[in-house]
Design goal:
single chain; 396 residues; twelve-stranded parallel beta sheet; binds calcium ion
């Protein structure tokens, strides 16, 4: 075991001399501070472990030998408890944007190979600047969090990734769409996305294009955080919708632990299937409906027709039953759209019931269809009696 406060590899003018190897299950190199690999090579293999706070892998354009780190073999591990940076020139001298500008594609590559059971962990933020590449083959990279630009520099052919990718802006959406090689089997890849700055396709452009596309398998957990563009407004006409495909994938697994919209968690008021889909009522018939299908995650913003109490775009017996069950009479209070107050005056009275009946459509979703004509007739009769009874006894 080697212990150091911090370390910098690569001061020797001959990069060939800047090589360190940590090999074997009992081999550890523990840095209580940062580790800098500058124009050199670090090999962690056969169960060796290297630990540090911040990890830096640097290159310089006057050096012909690129910097590289290889973590290979079961049990081999590089722990970066804080941030991780692969970039040209020392951290703090110039910004990541300046790195990109200086390099202009001419810099030698800086490479991190994680192979054959190796593991690299990052506790904070991982930043992978232009001309840097992470090659992941049958191994695991827990990258903390990173931008999409950094994420794009991970070349994963097999293994698993875990971390948060911050997606923001139109450029990110385009870049995301070309992330993965469709030929690659991503069946083991686990990726959590926190799209805390993700934006929607704007209202009215009728775009059905996915914001984010994975040709392979994507496993979802963590938080989906959706921020509508400032130009976006919810629908003002009842019965109309805006549909957004948030993610498409060759195959989707898992669901987001929570979905946020403009910073607020969407509550699941209705769960129409066993896939995790839900409909969330926002007030006065405005629904945000999240649907998980095998290859996509979709969002629908719906301003429901009066009487569509559950936001599934029909007014069927389920809706009428809800209105009748919620009946308060004209003196009632505290009623909501979900309990049958469809005109927004906080009661469920004969006006609400009548409106729901007039708007009746029957079930539109064949999967949950019930025999409507007979059901409708019975319900109309029941509603009629109820309305008469209550209006007699309860009218104020
Ligand atoms: Ca309905
Ligand atoms: Ca009323
Ligand atoms: Ca009412
Ligand atoms: Ca229905």
């Amino acid at each position: 075991m080697v212990t150091s406060l911090w370390a910098k590899m690569g001061n020797d003018g001959n990069p060939g001399n800047n090589v360190a190897t940590v090999a074997g299950a009992n081999s550890q190199w523990n840095n209580s501070g940062s580790l800098v690999v500058k124009a050199g090579a670090l090999n962690i293999q056969s169960g060796g472990v290297v630990s540090n706070t911040t990890g830096h892998v640097f290159g310089f354009s006057y050096n012909t030998n690129p910097s590289s780190v290889t973590v290979t073999g079961n049990g081999s591990r590089w722990n970066n408890s804080k941030d991780f940076l692969m970039a040209w020139a020392p951290l703090g001298v110039i910004s990541p944007e300046e790195f990109e500008h200086l390099c202009r594609g001419d810099c030698d590559s800086i490479i991190l190979n994680i192979e054959a059971g190796g593991l690299v962990t990052v506790g904070g933020t991982a930043t992978i600047i232009e001309n840097s590449t992470v090659n992941l083959v049958d191994a695991r990279f827990e990258f903390g969090q990173m931008t999409l630009a950094s994420f794009n520099r991970i070349n994963a052919t097999a293994g698993s990734l875990e971390g948060i990718v911050n997606v923001s802006g139109e450029n990110d959406k385009t870049a995301f769409a070309s992330l993965w090689n469709p030929e690659v089997d991503m069946s083991q890849v686990v990726t959590a996305f926190d799209m805390s700055s993700a934006t929607f396709v704007e209202l009215g452009d009728a775009s059905t294009a996915s914001d984010i596309n994975f040709p392979g398998y994507v496993y979802l957990n963590s938080t989906l955080s959706l921020m509508p563009l400032t130009s976006y407004t919810d629908r003002a006409t009842r019965g109309t919708v805006d549909d957004f495909t948030i993610i498409t994938a060759g195959q989707r697994g898992g669901t987001f632990n929570e979905v946020r919209y403009s910073g607020s968690v969407l509550a699941a008021d209705f769960r129409p299937d066993a896939n995790g889909s839900f409909r969330s009522h926002q007030g006065d018939g405005l629904f945000r409906n999240v649907t998980y299908i095998s290859t996509a995650v979709e969002l629908q913003n719906l301003l429901a027709v009066q009487g569509d109490t559950d936001g599934d775009r029909d007014i069927d017996t389920a809706d009428l039953t809800r209105v009748i069950s919620g009946f308060t009479g004209a003196a009632g209070s505290g009623a909501t759209w979900l309990t049958g107050d469809i005109d927004g005056d906080e009661d469920v009275d004969s006006r609400d019931v009548t409106r729901a009946i007039i708007n009746f459509t029957g079930a539109r979703n064949a999967a949950v269809a019930v025999p409507e004509p007979a059901g409708l007739l019975l319900l109309v009769l029941a509603v009629g009696c109820l309305a008469v009874e209550r209006s007699r006894s309860c009218r104020s």
